């Protein structure tokens, strides 16, 4: 089987458009029932609360590949010079069970998350959205902003994070990449209030209602997906439509995790309150945004199938280039 390291993947020239295309394609497959999807499970070791592991599983019928991803979520890894999320993806032959590849899933995790944000915005944001407010500066944050800007070409981008040095560095790197000013803001209010697209990718260690409903103006799209909730409990009062990646996934895993877990636990977010799953919207079986005044909330927790779709794309390119290392199995 083929082992693909991060350096191997970097050598293949995979573009943001490639990743967005792979994610949008597999979301359409979700909407037409051409995937087998299982909600994530968590492994929480006795490490004093330093972090936990997510285990994601799925199968892509059209591409004839199955797989499993294990990804760590360790908020304080920056203190050791490590990514907060590091992952491995195992791709499997669904006809024989034979392992096909082991793939470094760290970049894939970040990029497919950013692509999910971008694809969601393509269908759920106003087409004339020009102001982006983004909370969070690590991991998936880069891909969120870069891929969103590739679709909307924002006039204004505001970013913030807990540490002043991280938000300043993030804004500087984004400005260099995008060729436009990016404003580092000191507060959530300054970053989010009145933005056309609001993305919350914070790294809280305990729930805190930092994202308030008055920030979400008519016509806005809100995308919250921090592991620990940062939403005001009553925020759904102003939301016209809630779209999720998968309703079973929304309710799965450790009850401490999930941006809208408090709303679920309080009975404020129910299956009846959910307008659609994003796969139904991409496949065209449910409408997305229907007018420019709607406030839409898109909650994505991360679908295993998007990891597998991007990993499968990368494996195909690697096979063409004969990249990576072949490992004996039996």
Automatic annotation (TrEMBL):
Signal peptide: none
Residue stretches spanning the membrane: none
Classification via InterPro entries: NAD(P)-bd_dom_sf, ODC_Mu_crystall, ODC_N
Protein name: Ornithine cyclodeaminase family protein
